[in-house]
Amino acid sequence: GGCRGVCKGSRTQRHVSRHPRVPHASVAHAPASAAPMPALTTPINAGSGVAAPGRGERKRSLRFRWVVCLVAMVVVSQVPGSQAVFKVEEANLKVNIPASIKGSYAMAIANFGTPLYGAILAGSLVYPPTDHDACYPFPASWSAPKFPGLGASILLIDRGNCPFTRKAYNAQVAGADAVVIVDDKAEPLVTMDAGDDEETSQYVNNISVPVGLITQATGQAIETVLRTGSKVIVMLNWTDVLPHPDERVEWEFWTNSGDECGTKCDSQKAFIRDFSAVATSLEQGGYTQFTPHYVTWLCPPEYIADPACVSQCINNGRYCCPDPDDNLNAGYSGRDVVIENLRTLCVFQQANNTAVPWKWWEYVVAFGDRCTMASGTYGQEECATAIISSLGLDIEGWRACVGNPDANDINPLLESEQKAQVSDGNRGDVTLLPTVVINQRQYRGKLERSSILSTICAGFKIGQAPEICNDKGFINNKCAKDAEGYNTCAADLHKDGLTGCASQNEWPYYQCMCPLGTNKVNKAVDLHKDQSAFTCEEVNECLRVTTSMPSCSCARCVCKDLPAGEFACDEEPADKCAADAAAGVANPGGCWTEGSFSACFDNIGAKKEAGIQGLDPSSVPQSTCQCPTGFSGDGLHCEDVDECVSQCKGDNKVCTNTVGSFSCGCGDGFASLADTTSPDGMKCFEAVNVDGGRSGSSSVVVVTISVLSSCMVLAGGSFLVYRWRLRSYMDQEIRAIMSQYMPLEEDGDGPTGIGGGADEDGDSGVKDAHNPV
Q: Rounded to an integer, what distance in angstroms lies between the CA atom of residue 89 and that of residue 73?
């Protein structure tokens, strides 16, 4: 264990310096058109054996859709008769453009070079004009081209005629940021290893770029596009990197606003939340100068009208981001991500212009909580403006900064971001996401609070580091096991149940709280008894994460609550009932089936509910046999229920039983009317024809016409009475008002007139308007 690719510890592997191969049973993400593996004709380990074909692929609970993809893992296969263990490590080569070959392909990581574990390298593939196998140094007049907005220059070269290490070294000298070698045989992926000879050792010691191998089928598809002069935009993905501390404390965070990217995205979101207080403290104290950045790429001019660019770019293809769910026709698009990136950059611009740059952290934390892809509020401007308004920032200035994403024009802010991605000669190009740059050096390490803070603190001159960096701060974690805070809180000296420990920015740099997995809940207190005013109650984390975390809220994701505030989310297999039916299984799920009726029911809903209720979803079977409505039985055997035995009861009703259902109507000579008091919602009455005879449809028509006619007569009469009463009422009101200003003659209308009324003195008649006395 511990060695990558072909393990060398036992020395049973004979290394071939020209084209060593370790066979691998299948390609994790190769396209369906990939050729099958032929029988090996040239064994690489004469007399020692090779890794037997066969591998297992790690189950993925969520596919990464954004900047960092899960590496396809392979189960180590052992060589028969040998102690050597062979493993093909894979990264992912994702083609974003053009749409014709868009997709994810497996790439075997070489056992030399510098794999960029834990990050992503974005750029364009370049096929050299000559010497496609790179066995000789490229002419001094040619170097791997690099264009602003297109990221790294990744050289694509063919396998054959010389050692892998010589190819990679020559490509690196020509300016390549990474090297992808195309296999020259239709076989599964193999691990490229280096020989033990002196020449190869010199190459190995000087190769500093990542090197990978793709299948012949994948390479041929890409080379076909490159030979036409068109560009191919890709992303290469690895896992884990090592930290590199710096000397100065000006730092940048290159990130992305999308949140549907699985575990990596969840961890980045957690880092932003966890580091927010630390970053704010450093900024407010003037100890750091922080700048956020967002990576975008440029759509090549020939692809501006390509569906891939239309859905992933703004400003006529100038600024693009990959589709978060790899579906150009549904869900959120790369265009949505670019716009949110721009909006977040403009938040920082407004905050920085008003000398409160730390408000960017407040914004992104709030945005991560409220404006998520899972909730459907991501991409809605009103969600962003609500947060901006609460922070007291200038919304109109923010809108001016964002501009019009549909305009065929340059956005100054995004333009400067693309230029900032390219190295200034010291820092190196920013082609990985996420990337932290500290004092003009790219940090490689785990994206978590203590590691980032340690590296920032290492950049201060001796004696000038702030308090947060010394042994009383975050570096010496007061809540670490057996540390001061951990022991004090665990002792529960106040007998209040606050046995958990949380770090904080102020002395004593820790706070006792409810232990992980519980919440502090207020309760009624008896003042005559010595008891706490709160209690720590168990919390089912699945209630929260199944709505707020993309990796736990997909259609078939289920959550299991674990002790100490932990939880586990997994993606269940496809609907077994539907899968069995599609495969032509006679009885899907082993259940009763007859025609279009099946007793097989998918239990994904029950599994989700079990997690929410704090139960183990695995205790719920994948599917259940349950007779469908209209049938009775145990699900293995179902019989049609005769609903007419218990339903459609009443005078003159006729019931007809059907398979899985029934119909209820009226007998001959009777018609039905809706009746909410009847169990069947209807009643039957005798219908009469115009000539006095009974029956059928004609009687129903006559009755219907009669009813409608009566309704119309009643409605008309009611309307006339209503108009008459309304007119009389209005006449009375008008006369009463006018009588206050002018004499009115009696009209002899009796009760409806005004002139015959008595005045306040009881005298009949009308007062003189000019002499009212």
A: 7
Q: Which two tokens stand for residue 298?
A: 């440029």
Give the integer Cα–Cα distance in Å for 86 and 189: 13
Coil/strand/helix, residue 54: coil
Are 201 and 238 in contact by the 8 Å Cβ rule? The answer is no
- Owner of token pair 């977040």: 344
The SS3 of residue 616 is coil
106 touches 189 (CB < 8 A): yes
Measure Cα distances from 634 to 303, 597, 603, 660 in Å. 59, 14, 17, 16
In degrees and rounded to multiples of 5, residue 282 shows phi and psi of -65, -40
Q: Which two tokens stand for residue 153?
A: 């220059």
CB atoms within 10 A of CB 61: 18
Element (H, E) at 443: strand 441-443
Within 13 A of 172's CA, how many CA atoms are on the CB side?
Answer: 17
**Whole-number Å distance between alpha carbons of 287 and 266:** 28
Q: How far apart are CA 121 and CA 130, in angstroms?
A: 25
The CA-atom distances, in angstroms, between 493 and each of 248, 488, 497 are 43, 7, 9
Are 76 and 109 in contact, with CB atoms under 8 Å apart?
Answer: no
| Separation CA 38–CA 412 (nearest Å) | 54
For the chain, the 3-state helix, strand and coil shares in percent, each to the nearest 5, are 30, 20, 50
Strands 178-182 and 152-158: parallel
Question: Is the pTM value of this prediction over 0.90?
Answer: no
User: Residues 6 or more apart from 584 whose CB is under 8 A from it?
Assistant: none
Strand partners, 683: 673
Token code pair at residue 38: 């032929």
Cβ 176 vs Cβ 82: under 8 Å: no
pLDDT tens, position by position, 393-418:
999 999 999 999 999 999 999 999 99
Tell me how far apart the alpha carbons of residues 382 and 97 are, in angstroms, rounded to a whole number.
32
> Between the CA of residue 570 and those of 59, 243, 574, what are the distances in Å?
9, 31, 12
pLDDT per residue over 497-529, tens digit each?
888 888 765 556 788 888 877 777 776 555 454
Contact 580, 589 (CB under 8 A): yes
